[in-house]
Amino acid sequence: MVSQPARRMPRDERRAQLMSVAQRTFSKHGYFAASMDLIAENAGVSKPVLYQHFPSKLDLYSALLENELANLVVTVREALNSSDDPFTMVRSTVEAYFNFVAREGSAHELVFESDLSHDTTIARRLRKFRDTIGREIGEKVAQYTSLDSFEATYVGLTVTAAAERAAGLWQLKPEEMTRERACELVWRLAWRGIDGYLGDAAGTDAVT
């Protein structure tokens, strides 16, 4: 029986398929063990086809990272703008990180536990993402507190680091604690810290 040739896909569709396969391969094997040969094999394409879309494994990894960062930025920004109430904003922002790692098909390892965190280009991109989100959280904190811009940004960066780290740790052993409980522990901690700087006009009795 003669095998049928692989269906030719439009370029954008093929690129999306290759990224999806690469995401699963990187998540399973890690960056260094996941070769372009293995990714091409898993995708059912030849290596030349894979290299037409991504000149190197680092280019492929970088494209996946950008995609995941874009998804997380959208998720966190939606949380930041979900309410004018500071308590709800803090809780929703922390929840955004936990929802991100729990999302089906998420490649959160690329962001939270990257094998290439010491690569200069990747490290710079991750730092830019964290600084951007931290500053945006800081801008919200500054609106509700008496903290100056630098102090509010410092708080925002701290909340970002705590939420990211906690969500990543929970995902390693989700059977130990429900996502809801793990998330609650973090947002309560974050809220108690920010609550102490709120002005009289803010709702400081949201959590007892």
TrEMBL record:
The record's annotation in Gene3D superfamilies points to: Tetracycline Repressor, domain 2
Q: Which domain of life is it from?
A: Bacteria
Molecular function per GO: DNA-binding transcription factor activity; transcription cis-regulatory region binding
Listed GO biological process terms = negative regulation of DNA-templated transcription
UniProt keyword Transcription, yes or no: yes
InterPro entries noted in UniProt: DNA-bd_HTH_TetR-type_CS, Homeodomain-like_sf, HTH-type_TetR-like_transc_reg, HTH_TetR, Tet_transcr_reg_TetR-rel_C_sf
Ranges of residues in domain HTH tetR-type? 12-72
**Alphabetical UniProt keywords:** DNA-binding, Transcription, Transcription regulation
Q: Which residues bind DNA?
A: 35-54
A Pfam family that the UniProt record links to this protein: TetR_N
Q: Does the keyword Transcription regulation apply?
A: yes
Q: Which PANTHER family match?
A: HTH-TYPE TRANSCRIPTIONAL REGULATOR RUTR (PTHR30055), TRANSCRIPTIONAL REGULATORY PROTEIN (PROBABLY ASNC-FAMILY)-RELATED (PTHR30055:SF160)
List the protein's name.
Answer: TetR/AcrR family transcriptional regulator
Species name: Pseudoglutamicibacter cumminsii
